Amino acid sequence: MNIVIATRNRKKAEEIRRIVKDMAVSVHTLDDFPECPEIKEDGNTFEENAIKKAVSVSRHTGMAALADDSGLEVYALNGAPGVLSARYSGEDADDRKNVKKLLDEMRLVADEQRGARFVCCIALAFPDSKIKTFFGYVEGRIGKEPRGKGGFGYDPLFYPAGHNRTFAEISDEEKDSISHRGEALKKLYEYLKSYIYKKN
Fold first, then answer.
1. What are the CB-based long-range contacts (under 8 Å, 24+) for 37-43?
2. Catalytic residue among 22, 68, 69, 176
3. Is 32 a catalytic residue?
4. Which terminus, N or C, of the chain has the lesser number of Cβ atoms within 10 Å?
């Protein structure tokens, strides 16, 4: 089975490849289809954005396409940055600027009110227009300064519930086992396993 991951993010592609490594799946990325148009993420929910990306890439490539939209929801900020997580600090946003803005926004938030969760929605679109979605969540809290060298995005600020290390301080394998994307990918894995089994 051929699947195109609707991303040029190398770390995200590696994360997904680790999950499906023991399956009869050939994984491609948008780097294999440079002519694929950029897709504007203008949905109001993670699900809308993931579906839009997956459907667009599937139509363009004629293959099954996998897209995810994920982000951080901070309860004290009414769910922000939410779907704007990747561009929270503006059009020229990057991880460093986004982390700085979040820390600035939360500088007066008390320790007991720094709860947050990461959300991931994965959409799998097929050339026959069939669409499946898979959700994952991980609860945690926002630290007061970045810690750790791993991960990406807000990982250096996020302490998953029950842990005293940030996502940026734990190994890829440990993160996969507890992360929002890991949870959604487990659901995707189970679906693909049954899908491929039925096809054979």
1. 39/6, 41/69, 41/83, 41/86, 43/69, 43/83
2. 69
3. no
4. C
